[in-house]
Amino acid sequence: MLWTLVVPLKPLAQAKSRLADTADAGLRPGLALAFAQDTVAAALACPAVRDVAVVTDDPRAGRALAALGARIVPDAPGGGLNPALAHAAAVVRTGRPGRPVAAVNADLPALRPPELSRVLEAAGEFPRAFLADAADIGTTLLAAAPGQELMPAFGPHSRARHRASGAAELRLDAVDSVRRDVDTGDDLRAALALGVGPHTAAAAARLLIPEQ
Q: Three-state SS across 44-95?
């Protein structure tokens, strides 16, 4: 089973405000873009992934991610994260209603293709499934089988909301790179310890990141 991944990305100028203690306002847009570039590049390198659609209205991000091979879907609803994901899932399924779709966070800079393959293979056993983030509070991946609506419920405490929506929670070992999203300086340090992609490594090299 080959998947289409949908990756949401807000305007770069608004991204990663919780990294203010680690990166100033002038550096955060570039850091957010680097996270997305490494996420998309790793996803496209995953043998279980057929294509990647990034839903964004940010021109700079759109150009950079299209250059990697992603399809850019405008955020037509403009109503926030979950409407954007539902819209993008519908767009990529136009003409291909039998395609499985998974929403994946744009801030997984340590993402490893083999680990993503394991998660998608496990998700394929359920109508809908999700993977909790490293904090066991949020969600980094939500998958919907062919013919199933994605029904995204990302945001604070999304793990509980996705579970309540009927999605199966995937409990897998050794998929840390798929669970490690980056919102805070501590998250970034943890991602760097796992090993990030080249775009994030270059962007992080401009930061002064104290050791834990």
A: HCCCCEEEEEEECCCHHHHHHHHHHCCEEECCCCCCCHHHHHHHHHHHHCCC
